[in-house]
């Protein structure tokens, strides 16, 4: 429950009431928000429907705090100097006034939803923090003006300012300060609620896929999975984690008092106008109870096969499968490799064909109007039997194309193969890190009914998400450096001697993450009669791969090499992909 946000009037409603946006504009922005997970206000500003000042004024109204215009932002140098430069350089806030008698610092921010920033300022500066609102551009200009002046003054001209300046905090120092600051709040019951709110807000804002709550020896760490990597640690004091994990358990409807057994659940999280499908898993450990909160993709993603970046031969194979609409297609990839998004692109192709489409999905997502959508909740009973019943029901309903996302593996042979052999199309997801040829070989050779499986299988799509290096801080790598990385990965560097590699070191444009997003690559293997013949006589994965490559399949490794050659993939990405 994000009570603070729900109770307050939602920004969209406010803008509509004040006739600052039209119903059509708001609806358009809500659809955009679902795709991008950006804040609704941001989207409206970006589209030019409202100005940033208008948005700020409405946020001020919503949160009941003053809005100030750019001309009122005029902090003294002494006041600016009380803030460590590394905090100022984020350009997310500016100090307005300091009430030393009560230890209250008032700052100017563009977005009151940014609880993480407020917490951070509070913890580093050791003041109570109040805020007023101004546009982000006004704030950035005020910070820039001060930083430019400070560098001109060579930072030494004002001894008072120098004395007041707090040492730039290293990560370790910040963490220790956080611990000290938060220990005092252990008694504060509301703290868990606020912290969860700020964490969820931050996760949405940074488009994180997961949030990890990790009890360590002596501290408690929160990490965000952003673009596939865990980063942006927040360290809080021991003692808070009970409230934190407890709060999450309440949100997810788990047993609050059960702390010794792992638990998991799916639930919806309200965020502003929208509702996001999440899952949570808790795990007790020697240092206490940890948890992972995961945000799920929705099947109403709106992406087409072209948007996903699938190559021409791959797309042709998928279209062929959908046109025939017979047999079994498997979308495979490691955990969090975008399988649901790929299946949503299938859904779009399916929808154009005028058939009865049914989607069975474990997450409470949405498919728009494209299919009959069933959420399979297997948390109550035996997962296999719950799923089996759902698939049988779909079959009875006269389904033409069945899309199954997140079912147990045993269901594949038991239920999905028979349906796909009865003249219907079935698309299912499978979590595995194997390549298409390896996967095909493995599932057929481990099957007790391999003949039925071989005749049902039509298409294997294997997916990987690879990081996109930030183009603002991308630099060529010195020649010798690549050699070392190849050797460390146990690869012979000789074949790559002629290649030039790039590396991103991190810059403000990429929030010092060196990565700005992820892009999918696909390996699409069509199971035709040639391949079936190989499978029947128990051919090796190498033979399958060779035959498929002759028929137009591009392996993941070949695609990765092509990307590295075009300098779209970094050396690190290439080496980890080749070693896999
Ligand atoms: Zn960068």
Automatic annotation (TrEMBL):
<protein>
    <recommendedName>
        <fullName>Type II secretion system protein GspE</fullName>
    </recommendedName>
</protein>
<feature type="domain" description="Bacterial type II secretion system protein E">
    <location>
        <begin position="186"/>
        <end position="359"/>
    </location>
</feature>
<dbReference type="InterPro" id="IPR037257">
    <property type="entry name" value="T2SS_E_N_sf"/>
</dbReference>
<dbReference type="InterPro" id="IPR027417">
    <property type="entry name" value="P-loop_NTPase"/>
</dbReference>
<dbReference type="GO" id="GO:0016887">
    <property type="term" value="F:ATP hydrolysis activity"/>
</dbReference>
<dbReference type="InterPro" id="IPR007831">
    <property type="entry name" value="T2SS_GspE_N"/>
</dbReference>
<feature type="domain" description="Bacterial type II secretion system protein E">
    <location>
        <begin position="421"/>
        <end position="569"/>
    </location>
</feature>
<dbReference type="Pfam" id="PF05157">
    <property type="entry name" value="MshEN"/>
</dbReference>
<dbReference type="GO" id="GO:0005524">
    <property type="term" value="F:ATP binding"/>
</dbReference>
<dbReference type="GO" id="GO:0005886">
    <property type="term" value="C:plasma membrane"/>
</dbReference>
<keyword id="KW-0067">ATP-binding</keyword>
<feature type="domain" description="Type II secretion system protein GspE N-terminal">
    <location>
        <begin position="63"/>
        <end position="149"/>
    </location>
</feature>
<comment type="similarity">
    <text>Belongs to the GSP E family.</text>
</comment>
<dbReference type="Pfam" id="PF00437">
    <property type="entry name" value="T2SSE"/>
</dbReference>
<dbReference type="InterPro" id="IPR001482">
    <property type="entry name" value="T2SS/T4SS_dom"/>
</dbReference>
<keyword id="KW-0547">Nucleotide-binding</keyword>
């Amino acid at each position: 429950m994000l009570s603070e946000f729900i109770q307050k009037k939602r920004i969209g409603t406010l803008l509509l009431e004040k006739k600052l946006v039209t119903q059509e504009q708001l609806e358009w922005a809500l659809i955009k928000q679902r795709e991008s997970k950006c804040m609704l206000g941001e989207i409206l500003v970006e589209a030019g429907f409202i100005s940033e000042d208008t948005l700020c004024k409405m946020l001020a109204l919503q949160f009941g705090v003053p809005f100030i215009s750019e001309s009122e932002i005029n902090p003294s140098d002494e006041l600016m100097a009380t803030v460590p430069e590394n905090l100022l350089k984020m350009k997310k806030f500016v100090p307005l006034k300091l009430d030393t008698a009560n230890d209250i610092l008032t700052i100017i921010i563009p977005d009151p939803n940014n609880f993480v920033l407020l917490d951070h300022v509070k913890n580093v500066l050791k003041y109570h923090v109040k805020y007023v609102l101004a546009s982000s551009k006004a704030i950035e200009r005020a910070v820039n003006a001060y930083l430019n002046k400070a560098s001109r003054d060579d930072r030494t001209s004002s001894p008072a300012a120098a004395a007041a300046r707090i040492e730039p905090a290293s990560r370790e120092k910040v963490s220790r300060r956080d611990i000290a600051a938060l220990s005092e709040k252990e008694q504060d019951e509301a703290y868990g609620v606020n912290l969860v709110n700020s964490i969820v807000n931050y996760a949405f804002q940074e488009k994180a896929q997961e949030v990890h709550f990790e009890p360590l020896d002596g501290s408690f760490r929160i990490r965000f999975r952003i673009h596939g990597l865990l980063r942006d640690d927040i360290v809080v004091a021991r003692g808070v984690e009970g409230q934190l994990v407890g709060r999450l358990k309440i949100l997810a409807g788990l047993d609050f008092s059960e702390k010794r057994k792992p638990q998991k659940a799916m639930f919806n999280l309200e965020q502003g106008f929208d509702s996001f499908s999440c899952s949570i898993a808790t795990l007790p450990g020697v240092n206490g109870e940890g948890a992972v909160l995961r945000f799920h993709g929705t099947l109403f993603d709106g992406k087409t096969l072209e948007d996903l970046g699938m190559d021409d031969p791959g797309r042709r194979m998928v279209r062929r499968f959908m046109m025939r609409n017979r047999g079994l297609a498997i979308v495979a990839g490691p955990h969090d490799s975008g399988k649901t998004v790929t299946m949503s692109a299938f859904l779009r192709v399916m929808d154009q064909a005028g058939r009865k489409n049914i989607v069975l999905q474990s997450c409470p997502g949405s498919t728009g109007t494209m299919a009959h959508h069933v959420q399979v909740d297997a948390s109550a009973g035996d997962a296999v039997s719950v799923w089996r019943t759902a698939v049988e029901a779909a079959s009875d309903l006269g389904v033409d194309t069945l899309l199954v996302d997140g079912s147990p593996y045993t269901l594949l042979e038991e239920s999905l193969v028979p349906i796909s052999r009865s003249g219907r199309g079935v698309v299912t997801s499978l979590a595995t890190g194997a390549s298409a040829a390896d996967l095909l070989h493995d599932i057929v050779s481990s099957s007790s009914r391999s003949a039925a499986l071989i005749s049902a299988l039509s298409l294997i799509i294997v997916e990987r998400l690879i990081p996109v290096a930030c183009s603002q801080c991308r630099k060529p790598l010195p020649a010798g450096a690549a050699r070392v990385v190849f050797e460390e990965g146990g690869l012979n560097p000789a074949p790559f001697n002629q290649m030039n590699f790039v590396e991103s070191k991190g810059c403000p444009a990429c929030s010092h993450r060196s990565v700005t997003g992820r892009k999918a690559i696909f390996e699409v293997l069509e199971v035709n009669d040639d391949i079936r013949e190989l499978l029947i006589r128990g051919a090796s994965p190498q033979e399958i791969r060779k035959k498929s490559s002759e028929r137009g399949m591009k392996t993941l490794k070949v695609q990765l090499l092509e990307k590295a050659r075009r300098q779209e993939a970094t050396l690190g990405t290439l080496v980890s992909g080749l070693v896999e």
